[in-house]
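Recap from last week: sequence in, structure out.
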Amino acid sequence: MCLKTLICLKTNDSTGIGGVSLYDEKDSIMKNAKEDMLLQLEQMSRSGVGLFVDGQRVLPAEAVSRAVREDSPYMADYVLGDSGAVEQVRFDKVIYR
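Predicted structure tokens:
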């Protein structure tokens, strides 16, 4: 049973003893977000969409590893072509002032 998103009660099947895990739920959510983003970026890349991080062309896995994390300083910009289709996804570091 989960309370909010950070505290989950778990029981060990072999002993029946429960415990509280503060980070398992959060880690699982982040892992799922990375997997989902990787699948989306791989599909876009296969369709000819260019992927960039800080102005450098990257593979989908590199974009995910650098841009999808807790407190990520990156923002995705979707660049459209004349036809209205996405031609580039640009992850640029956001500078806080």
